[in-house]
Task: structure prediction
Amino acid sequence: MAKKKDSRQQSLPFERETLRNRVLGEILLSRQREVMAALKPGREAWDTQPGDQAECSAGQTQHDLDAELTAMRCRTLRLINTALSRLQKGDYGECKSCGDEIAEARLRSLPFAIRCKTCEDQREMREERERLAEKRAMKARGSSPLAQMLGLVIP
Ligand SMILES: [Zn+2]
Result:
């Protein structure tokens, strides 16, 4: 994959990037410990296979809220693990969508971010639009089959 960093490489000494990665790696590891500790009760499976997605989505649903929280922690953990393995490979901090470098400030507050701010915003906007369109379509299906038939529903 072609890197777009050539022009910036001179102004960004190698040492600085290494330091950044070390700091962010520590943040990631401490987040990983936090999430795994929170996931632990009644989840022995996690001790052996922290990266396993199947274990993650399965079971332990006393309350919906619990399940939701667990699912959220699992997602976070997966993102953290991905970030850590990218850190090892050396392509950490690159935007998944445009390949550009993700701003350090963003990585510090969101160390497992996989997209730069611009791409993430675009993605969120797109998802929001899709959600809205779907909601409108569903509403229309319920209330006005005629409007739906005439194609007045989805913009
Ligand atoms: Zn991007």
The chain is about 65% helix and 0% strand. The domain at 12-115 is CATH 1.20.120.910 (Four Helix Bundle (Hemerythrin (Met), subunit A)). The helical segments are 6-9, 14-39, 45-48, 53-57, 64-89, 104-109, 117-143, 145-149.
